Amino acid sequence: MNDWLFRGDFTSTPTNVPAMLLGLALSFLGGHIIAWVYMVTHSGLSYSKSFVNSLLVIPSVVSLVMMVLSNSLVTAFGLMAVFAIVRFRNILRDTLDASYILMVIVLGMAAGTMKFSTAIIGTLVLCGLMLYLWITGFGTRHRYDMILNFHWAGPHPERSKLEELLNHYALKAVCASERTHEGFAGSDLSYRLLLKNPRTMPSLLQDLQGFPGVSRVTGLKAEEESEV
Fold first, then answer.
1. Most buried residue among 43, 68, 159, 226 by CB atoms closer than 10 A?
2. In the chain, what are the domains?
3. pLDDT per residue over 150-199, tens digit each?
4. In terms of pTM, does the model score above 0.85?
5. In this structure, are residues 177 and 189 in contact, taking their beta carbons and an 8 Å threshold?
């Protein structure tokens, strides 16, 4: 069984299984490092856990793609044609969904080019990688509990009292954006808050709605910091 698994690529050039596993492991490690750096350095409201996961998955998938292609121009054109058809017929909004599509395409190409060992081992490694992401919740950050948006039309000296109210509920309150509109008084403010107690979010919204100069208060819970 082991001999068939490790020598199951019926092509002109046999696959070096230890080198294949090393390549997959190296691409996984490199993707891990890049994903960690992205998580640490990213700023703004558009953080996406799914995108971080795709940074981890895509290097391993591309590594397997290159092993399947193995300098075959015909196979390379086949890959581009199949992936172009999938992208044309389906609009994939999630980068991780695109990674799954690429995985099954590469699996079919490996089986179709009689690289059976590559198909089996590659599928097991990539499925293990996806299970790892699911079990560990890799890519999740908990820097803020909520995103708070409201319109501020009060006098500038009262702004400090407003921030005192936010700091009463939050361990950390960061003003993410401030937008003013020509011809309208005041400005639209957006804050990111790390609450002392997440259960106090309704009380915070109620106090803000009664604060002089504050209107159009909305709060968005940011448990997994998905795309907002």
1. 68
2. 2-136 (no CATH), 146-221 (3.30.70.260)
3. 888 888 778 888 888 888 888 888 888 888 766 667 788 888 888 888 88
4. no
5. yes
DSSP string for the chain: -HHHHHT-B-SSS---HHHHHHHHHHHHHHHHHHHHHHHHH--SS---HHHHHHHHHHHHHHHHHHHHHTT-HHHHHHHHHHHHHHHHH-----HHHHHHHHHHHHHHHHHHTTBHHHHHHHHHHHHHHHHHHHHHTTT---S-SEEEEEEE-S-GGGHHHHHHHHHHHEEEEEEEEEEE-TTSSSEEEEEEEEESSGGGHHHHHHHHHTSTTEEEEEEEE-SS----
